[in-house]
Amino acid sequence: MVQSSVKPSDILNQANPDRLHRIRHTCSHVMAMAVQKLFPDAKVTIGPATDNGFFYDFDRQEAFTPQDLKKIEKEMKKIIKANLPVIREEIDREAIRTEITKLNEPYKLELLDAIPEDAVITRYFLGEPGKDKNVWWDLCSGPHLERTGEIDPDSFELESIAGAYWRGNENNAMLQRIYGIAWENAEQLEAYKHQIEEAKRRDHRRIGKDLQLFSIQEEAGGGLVFWHPRGALMRKTIEDFWKEIHLQGGYELVTTPHIANLELWKTSGHNDFYRDSMFDTMEVEEQTYQLKPMNCPFHILIYKDGLHSYRELPIRYAELGTVYRYERSGTMHGLMRVRGFTQDDAHIFCTEDQISQEILGVLNLAEQLLSTFGFANYEVNLSTRPDKYVGEDAIWEKATSALQNALDRKGWHYKVDEGGGAFYGPKIDIKIEDAIGRKWQCSTIQVDFNLPDRFDLEYVAEDGLRKRPIMIHRALFGSLERFFGILVENYAGDFPLWLAPLQVRLIGVSDEQMPYLTEVEQKMKAAGLRVQLDRSGERMAKQIRKAELEKIPVMAIAGNKEVESHSLSIRTRQQGELGVIPVSELIDKLLHGIQTKGWL
RNA sequence: GCCGAUGUAGCACAGCGGUAGUGCAGCCGAUUCGUAAUCGGCAGGUCAGGGGUUCAAAUCCCCUCAUCGGCUCCA
Description:
Layout: H1 8-13, H2 17-38, E1 43-44, E2 53-59, H3 66-81, E3 86-90, H4 93-103, H5 106-114, E4 122-126, E5 136-139, E6 156-165, E7 174-182, H6 186-201, H7 204-210, E8 214-216, E9 225-227, H8 229-248, E10 252-253, E11 259-261, H9 262-268, H10 270-273, E12 282-284, E13 287-291, H11 296-304, E14 315-324, E15 340-350, H12 355-372, E16 378-383, H13 393-410, E17 415-417, E18 427-433, E19 439-448, H14 451-454, E20 459-460, E21 466-467, E22 470-479, H15 480-491, E23 504-508, H16 514-526, E24 531-533, H17 540-549, E25 554-558, H18 560-565, E26 567-572, E27 576-582, H19 583-595
Parallel strand pairs: 10-14, 16-17, 23-24, 23-25
Antiparallel strand pairs: 1-2, 2-7, 3-4, 4-5, 6-7, 8-9, 11-13, 12-13, 14-15, 15-22, 16-18, 18-19, 19-22, 20-21, 25-26, 26-27
Helix pairs in contact: 2-3, 4-5, 7-15, 12-13
The structure holds one RNA strand.
């Protein structure tokens, strides 16, 4: 891929946020005006600016079509060309109520009633009443541009039509939302569209299919992942690394079942709080069983299977535990949102005094794990006690400051989300940033005061009395499936050597070199490399093309010259041709690249 | 689950009332070639599944399933 000198993200970062916001907000009004002109039966609702453009929700009997969007766009350009003034007016509540009633706009009336008593009520006109021929207004708090002509007619586009509930509540009417994108100028619009194209190019669903990594089978049901040989090999590599660093980090690996007696979920409380996300139960010999949506109760049972001394704490149980959650049919998305997935779960049982140290350990492990996959920038959030919660105030206080203390010791900047914690304890979330600047929440660390109580967990303290341990839930990848999807998109399928399912493709200039290359293949396999000789007999250029399309990191090519000198001509995806290298030297280089988790 | 769209060979797509077509991939043969596509041949589809309208359905209608874009949800 040829990189242009100016990155799209640079162009977009130059944009003025305040001006963008006004442009987008005014765009949404211009669109609503255009829509009501073309479709007088459409009722207006709300239309804010978004991160890359704007939308407006309409209530209309008939569905908008993609052709309608073209017409609306045309009408919008007319409004922009007319350069109508945007006029702000403060208005009395009752006066505007009368006007809205006259226009028969029920949603606007509802919005009006939701405005606080003491607030100043404003509306924005497009066009000057009594002067311009076309005038339209909307109840709105602004801010906006001064005139519609300030919008660059080549810097916006209408994107799509989608359903959206009135006020985001699924019990309300379904409205039709028209999305648009808008920027300051055509250059920014182009840059933005490039970024979207780039994201599409990296789509893990596309790459997963092309590279034969995984599939989701209609016959089996949605949201259930099939790992194909190449994907499964990558998964094994990831799992092996995960297990290795967890064992080094003082964790013990456990393995637990996929179903269990429903009683367990009643005890844990999941059956009450989480029922909507659980699969239906099944009857087994007059007992009710449940497919597991969580691993925690299982780890708790292992903990409870014996008496623990304070000397043993902290106890850390880790498991790549596959859980099943019922997701509504419209919500599944590739590997990112599925019904069966594998949490890289662990539960730490410790004393109150050990929380800070344990959290720090988790932060360190998270950094070690994530940075190995090239994720070096994190956005960290600390979520504190919500309105509804369990546990004593004192323990909340203690745990929250333990989390803060750990973050400070780690030296990480973080944002505090007041009241954003779970009802059972405070938590830390870590978001990673991928190669094209998108953020993904993966790691989560949660302190739990609830489950130890419900399961009556204990340890024997120094004074011989039974005490209750604290539990810390933590996942670093979050979901292995989802993390894999993120990896595919981050690398755009160009995986580093240690992850690549096939590391080397051997290619002969003609069939003459087959005996030699067969020998080389054996040697490389013996060295532990994932290598494959192309025996198709196709022309060399075709074999190279095939290997490129499969995104195999290293192509090792031999003609008669290489056979003579016991070497290979090397072509890599990352750095192009590297020239001729002796076989043994190449193997060493490859092994080194794999070991350091880098490239050749 | 809701709104809208889509579902044709392994993949990308054409056909949109008269009982399926192109390219790539696959297989067979010829070619033995120096860094992203050699040539020729063959094979491959209950047009997502089910029901209906029609003399006739991939094409029109209904239901189901899945996918896509959103909404909602993600203690």
